[in-house]
Amino acid sequence: MGKAALRWRIGQHEDAETLREHPAIREAARMLREGKLVAFPTETVYGLGADARSEEAVSRIFTAKGRPGDNPLIVHIGHVSRLQDLVAELPTKGELLVRRFWPGPLTLVLPHKGTVAPKVTAGLDTVGVRMPSHPVALALLQESGLPVAAPSANRSGRPSPTEAEHVWEDLGGEIDGLLDAGPTGVGLESTVVDVTGSVPLLLRPGGVTLEELRETVGEVRVDPALEGDAHPPRSPGMKYRHYAPKGEMWLVEGSGEALVHRIRELADHARKAGRRVGILTTEENRFRYKADRVVACGRRAEPESVARDLYRALREMDRAGVDYILAETFPAEGLFRPVMNRLYKAAGGRVFRADDQCPKGSSS
């Protein structure tokens, strides 16, 4: 701790079995077994891993991230068979979801056996478990032989890391190792579903859409807590401000010409007030705005590109030094549902509607 982590760069490989022979994977796995912290890529974002059975190792995650102690962690496994070591039962609907989406960006909340460190569950009788699909993540998990607790590898509240450099910026002096395998694919955290009841409950939208969940198991409810704080949080991301850039961020709800026109007005007003303004848009509109920084976040016609680029775009705002950010919004459906969930969190709930006159509470 207090010094730069070891950083290993790993090229593209086809499968986890081949990667298990990689010297960096073996070294990183050894470090996890010794109770150290290792950041690694998943298909969603980079995670900060520690032995989920060790209270001491897990405590280091909270210290490194500055993470609140009542925010539970997700446990990552390298084989579906490892579930039996962690959970008391896998309901039928949970089994259906595992068959379709594992390995992949889906976390299931299940009753635990008490085999993980208490800090992992934040005192709850359930634990979130997932099996990632990224070959580097799978190789590390399989080689270590451990269940690995791994939240996103960033300072708590900051945009999640989708590139190794983001991890290095936030935590390079707080962790022991970093496996660098380039940008992640999905770009948003995993979907979290509680399957302990008769009807599955969506706790956090993510890489698996609500529509895909319903295609697989029928009815899926959406937790009302997604619209506000929950106490205690049953899933990471349900409480506290998350994913936030350093500047004051506002979402602008609307569509078409009305949306573009209102963002232009707000940007002009803020700049005249002496603010450094950033605008978060998509490729379709990037040349229609003037500001201190205009950042395109994928293409509106390709929701997966927006999801993949969101956190990179928010970090780009920080690098540009803007202190006031206006962000376009999207219809909350499909992959845009988790995008909007993250944007609302990043903005701390600050929303301006295109037909309003001025954002209530705005310092501009």
UniProtKB/TrEMBL annotation:
ATP binds at R67, N71, T126, S152, S160, R204, Y243. It is found in: Cytoplasm. One of its GO terms (cellular component) is cytoplasm. The keyword rRNA-binding does not apply. GO terms for biological process: regulation of translational fidelity; tRNA processing. Gene3D superfamilies: DHBP synthase, Threonylcarbamoyl-AMP synthase, C-terminal domain. It catalyses: L-threonine + hydrogencarbonate + ATP = L-threonylcarbamoyladenylate + diphosphate + H2O. InterPro entries: DHBP_synth_RibB-like_a/b_dom (IPR017945), Sua5-like_dom (IPR006070), Sua5/YwlC_C (IPR038385), Sua5_C (IPR005145), T(6)A37_SUA5 (IPR010923), TC-AMP_synthase_SUA5 (IPR050156). PROSITE patterns: YRDC (PS51163). One of its GO terms (molecular function) is tRNA binding. Transmembrane segments: none annotated. Residues 22-208 form the YrdC-like domain. Keywords: ATP-binding, Cytoplasm, Nucleotide-binding, Nucleotidyltransferase, Transferase, tRNA processing. It comes from the Bacteria. SUPFAM superfamilies: YrdC/RibB. L-threonine binds at T44, H76, R130, A150, S190. Its EC number is 2.7.7.87. Required for the formation of a threonylcarbamoyl group on adenosine at position 37 (t(6)A37) in tRNAs that read codons beginning with adenine. Belongs to the SUA5 family. This is Threonylcarbamoyl-AMP synthase. The lineage of its organism: Bacteria, Bacillati, Bacillota, Bacilli, Bacillales.
